[in-house]
Amino acid sequence: MQASYSDNANFIEAVKSVGPHEHLCLIYSNRDEQFASIGPSLEIGLERRERVLYVADEKSAVAVRDAIRETGIDVDRYGRDGTLVIVAGRQDMYIEPGFFHPEWSIRFLSQLEDEARAVGFSGIRFIGEMSWAIGDDSDSARLIEYEAKVNRLFSQINASGICQYNLNRFPPEVILGVIQTHPLVIYRGDVCRNPYYIPPDEFLKPNRAAVELDRLLSNIHATQQARQTILASEQRWRSIFESSAIGIAMTELDGRFVVTNRACQDLVGYTVAELQEMKLLDLTHEDDRGNTIDLIAEMQAGQRKEFQIEKRCLRKDRPPVWVRTTMSLIPDAEGSPRYMMALVEDITERKLAEENLRKQTEVLQKIFDHIPVMINLTGEDGRLKLVNREWERILGWRLEEIQKQDVDVIAECYPDPRDRQTVLNFRAAARGERFDLKTRTRDGRMIDTRWAVVKLTDGATLGIGIDITERKRAEEELQRSFGQLRELTARLESVREEERARVAREIHDELGQALTAIKIDLASLGSALRADQKEELQKAESILRLVDQTILSVRRIATELRPGILDDLGLVAAVEWAAEEFEARTGIKCRLDLPDDDIVIDPERTTAIFRIFQETLTNITRHAEATQVDVKLGTEDGRIVLEVRDNGRGIGQEQLSTGKSLGILGMRERALLLGGELTISGVPRKGTIVRVLIPAPHPDSARSV
């Protein structure tokens, strides 16, 4: 590699991550590779308060010190306090001249760890430049045995180590043995987990070849499985990349496209080959380029890890679309930015929806500000959040001062505690029902208002109200007019009944008496005629018959004006008489359900009920085409009930709703004047039911009539 490993952040972090009990070998071919790991390894050892033992040959000890000094570590200081110990391998690791003994070296390391812990160190860190161990074949064999046993030792004590082997000085057979005895291998700037490592218990067995063969075959199989897993993973990610509904693009740092997926190509309308000749900014609308350039520069400068921007994307032979682009950096093996990744999502529909929503919001805001009703929004905490202009105009409060001064508007508008609690309960229920209130404005006036409150999904309540003061005043005036009109109507009806009774009496008494006297005189004249005066006798008989008919007509007219039976015998007898007259006159069968005793009520109620009954029979005659009428009269829950049912064609709802029938209007008005009600219902081809309910008078008042 051309770049120094000492500048490789990933390599430095990997070396620093080596913990206690780890045994590594460094395979190197030049000085840079040899000393790249010294600095980070020493640094982490010093941080962990470990004693560091560096084993070098006599020729390289000075170079080792210089290399350590280049990392910024104070060699002399740590040498004086015993933290850093540099020894000559051939002198210190041989038990006697020319003979390397693995067990002696293992005891040496164990003793060194004991001594280090005894003086306060947490353990030892061993770095060995192993060229001092080069000798004959027996030395090489003992060296490999030593490396295998170090694994066992390091698993038992608080120690870690890096053994450095120069490829140019050690034969391949030795390097192969070194690799087999180290769980971790540092090679060409990478710290690798070693798949060819053989644990010491297996390595030191006599049948090591068989064990190595089995492990080698297992590693070959595992390597193939790992390769297939990697290929499957690559295929899976490639499938995700190509089938993603979101556009994905990888570009150089200058924005030139390297690779794009199908969704990205379909979005912009360009082919893979065309995109590889283009840059990211070529697809960015000119109005959005400046912002995009600034964000990319900030990301590449390390000011942001990624960014997201909504912009217009240019397309081939098609109108631009709105996209949301998320950009991030893809680092190389050393952690430096190498590519840019862009995720591109078409948000045109969302943008159109947002624009439509903005327009609708603007319209709603205009309505909210200018609608002639009061609107307020109250939060779940009971505080006023929003009001419109009409609310402020009518009540006199401004939202800004309410929120700034923390005004309790409910207390101000409803000073009576009972009214205030009613308002709070009404707002809490928020069922959308209308409710009328007396509301005090800021200037102290009491106005009539009508409110409806609904609850929103977030717990807030929306109140909608109107000032109905003028309407209330008009309604009260109208009710007063209606009351006066009703009183006038009642008086007219009373006068009318009195007049009819008077006329009926005068007709019956005066005209009836006169006709009776005429009849007596005519009879007397007739008896005075001779038998031979036939013509005169016939004329006298004709006049007598005419007088009889006139007497009957007078009686009928007097009865229709005011039936004497109503005053003499009461309501029950009058209803029975009217029903019989109706049946005799129309031929329609009339069935009665009447109480045995008369219903004692005042003349006003008696007259009203009887007149309603008469009008009902008149309507049946004119419109019902009925063959039978059922009449029921009685009392029910303190009220007088009259029910008339026919089997005619049935009155329709449209006939009832037109309000053109003066007869029905008169019947209803008579009932209303007495605090009663009249209902009419009909079923086509099945008949009509008229039901009258009149409150009965108090027994004392009824008896006093």
Net shape: rod-shaped
The average pLDDT is 84
Classified by CATH, the class of the largest domain is: Alpha Beta
Helix content: 40-55%
Radius of gyration: 58 Å
Strand order of the largest sheet: 3-2-4-5-1-6-7
Structural class: alpha/beta
Give the name of the CATH superfamily of the largest domain. Answer: P-loop containing nucleotide triphosphate hydrolases
Largest sheet: 7 strands, mixed
How many domains in all? 5
CATH fold-level topology of the largest domain: Rossmann fold
Low-confidence stretches: 701-705
What's the tally of helices? 27
What is the CA–CA distance across the termini?
Answer: 129 Å
The number of strands is: 22
Which architecture of the largest domain would the CATH scheme give at its second level? 3-Layer(aba) Sandwich
Gist of the model:
The chain is an alpha/beta fold.
Helix-strand blueprint:
Layout: H1 9-16, E1 23-28, H2 31-35, H3 38-47, E2 51-56, H4 61-70, H5 75-80, E3 84-88, H6 89-92, H7 102-118, E4 124-129, H8 137-154, E5 159-166, H9 172-180, E6 184-187, E7 190-193, H10 200-203, H11 208-243, E8 247-251, E9 257-260, H12 262-268, H13 272-275, H14 286-300, E10 306-315, E11 318-331, E12 337-346, H15 348-370, E13 374-378, E14 384-387, H16 389-395, H17 399-405, H18 409-413, H19 417-429, E15 431-440, E16 446-455, E17 461-467, H20 469-528, H21 534-561, H22 564-568, H23 571-586, E18 589-593, H24 603-624, E19 628-636, E20 639-646, H25 653-658, H26 662-673, E21 677-683, E22 687-695, H27 699-703
Parallel strand pairs: 1-5, 1-6, 2-3, 2-4, 4-5, 18-19
Antiparallel strand pairs: 6-7, 8-9, 8-12, 10-11, 11-12, 13-14, 13-17, 15-16, 16-17, 19-20, 20-22, 21-22
Helix pairs in contact: 1-3, 7-8, 8-9, 20-21, 23-24, 24-26
